[in-house]
Write a structure and sequence with these properties.
- The protein is an alpha/beta fold.
- The chain has helices at residues 19-32, 51-57, 64-92, 103-111, 117-134, 150-158, 178-194, 212-223, and strands spanning 7-12, 37-41, 96-100, 142-147, 198-202, 204-205, 208-209.
- The protein has a single domain, classed as 3-Layer(aba) Sandwich (Rossmann fold).
- 50% of the residues lie in helices and 14% in strands.
- Strands 2-3-1-4-5 form a five-stranded parallel beta sheet, with helices on both faces. A two-stranded antiparallel ribbon has the order 6-7.
- Helix 2 (51-57) runs antiparallel to helix 3.
- The chain is globular, with a radius of gyration of 17 Å.
- The relative contact order is 0.20.
Length: 228
């Protein structure tokens, strides 16, 4: 496999934390500075590769807890594999690739289902092997975790435009479950402290959301050295 030439940046965090907004702002900034940029969103809603993800999130297989971390992780991993050649080609062409969610999303949302730390560590190793060794997807240069307190993030998520695959449901099973979002929030904080190349971006001050502009400046400070 060829060594990549570009730069791969991932935004992650709980539903409603502002990932799409900050992804868009960073793309706009980099294009203005004449960088070659490509953006990709996961899951790839509407594509065949995301079909199992859509059914899972719509509740077809039961609750998130019932599906469990391992089965759900495979759904998402298959969707990323479907996009892996495209991402690899962009990077080989020297482009900056920005992803809205990636493997860290499985770590947060699925790892949050595992309460015992030793079992969670085993899951993280299994997930790493699945995504990076078996599927051989590209590792990001940096993962930026946008941290918004779960109850506030949920309110933001429920205000978003409803996804078409949900049909008559107002939100997916993750967005509707505050406990799930709180568990994911805690794991995102945990992995930002313990795993290299995962950086927490604090999006709140004194219990209030920071402005989009202020958060984007924090994001830039995390990645500016890549452009030095």
């Amino acid at each position: 496999m060829k060594r990549k030439k570009g730069l791969f940046i991932v935004f992650d965090g709980t539903d409603g934390s502002g990932k799409a907004t900050q992804t868009g702002l960073l793309v706009k900034k980099l294009k203005k500075e004449r960088h070659k940029v490509e953006k990709i969103d996961f899951p790839q809603y509407g594509k065949k590769s995301a079909a199992l993800v859509e059914e899972y999130l719509s509740g077809k297989y039961g609750t998130a807890e019932r599906v469990g971390p391992y089965r759900a992780s495979i759904f998402y991993a298959c969707d990323r594999y479907a996009a892996s050649n495209r991402i690899r080609k962009w990077l080989e062409d020297g482009k900056i690739v920005i992803a809205n969610r990636y493997v860290t999303a499985n770590m947060g949302h699925q790892g949050g289902k595992i309460k015992k730390k030793s079992e969670r560590k085993k899951y993280f190793q299994w997930l790493h092997d699945l995504e990076y060794r078996i599927f051989e997807i590209t590792k990001p240069d940096i993962n930026l975790i946008l941290h918004v307190e779960a109850s506030i993030a949920q309110k933001m998520a429920l205000q978003k435009r409803k996804k078409s695959y949900l049909k008559d449901k107002k939100a997916d099973i993750h967005e509707l479950d505050l406990k799930h979002l709180k568990d994911a929030e805690n794991i995102y904080i945990e992995i930002s402290k313990t795993i290299p190349n995962i950086e927490l971006v604090e999006c709140m001050v004194n219990g209030n959301l920071m402005s989009k502009k202020d958060v984007s400046e924090l994001v830039w400070n995390k990645i500016v050295n890549f452009f030095a």
